[in-house]
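The instructor's notes for this session suggest beginning with a concrete chain rather than abstract definitions. Hand out the sequence below and ask the class to guess, before any prediction is shown, which regions might be ordered.
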Amino acid sequence: MAYIEVKDVSKAYDRDGEAFQALSHVMLAVERGEFICLLGPSGCGKSTLLGMLAGFEQPTSGSILIDGAPVAGPAASRVTIFQHYGLLPWQTVERNVMLGLLAKKVPKAQARKTAAHYIELVGLSGYEQVRPGQLSGGMQQRVAIARALAVKPEVLFMDEPFAALDAITRLKMQDDVHRIAEEEGVTVVFVTHDIEEAVSLADRIVVLSANPGRVKEVVPVELGPDRLRTGEDFIAVRDHVFDVFGMKPDWDVEFVI
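After discussion, reveal the predicted structure:
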């Protein structure tokens, strides 16, 4: 039995009195500790699937199990990070990271110690007493990640968390999230529409087609921890994913030493 099981899941909505089929007969199995990317164009249902995995919505048909139990709603062992950081602007970085711990009645001294560990892990040591408005977008997302990890979730759901970041910051965040996920051993399901981001992060890429959303192919990414974006193996996986979509990349990377 896989850690996360999506069994023949379909999801339909009512749109202005008409039925809209967002997902159709999706099957997926995720092992504990895997990093899975849900990849597809806008409207393919990837965020809808993530929302059902997180327990925010229920399938129209089919079932979703995590660790053998049906997903009936959100749970403390599963944390979701969105594109918008959701930080409290009037609180410091330290207090934002401590929020989930204090909600769980962790003693303040222990919560502060745990927060310090995760603030350091995401590279924000020295910013503990700074408020979110004084930070860049990438730094704010690091705070959101630290806050999520501080409560030691079993599963981390991430819905296009880097979409609003500039290209350089986004590449750095991809590398850091990949490293942190491996260090923490957390299971990650990550939504993106960016093929190279998926190859940079995932153990497996779940490619979804649209209208309605279906699993088109699951692509294994066997590149190891060091994923040189200009390496031949990286480019081969990237180009295979383009092929799955029936596309070709607009450019080829040429790395000159």
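Then share the key points. Confidence is low (pLDDT under 50) at residues 251-257. The longest helix spans residues 167-184.
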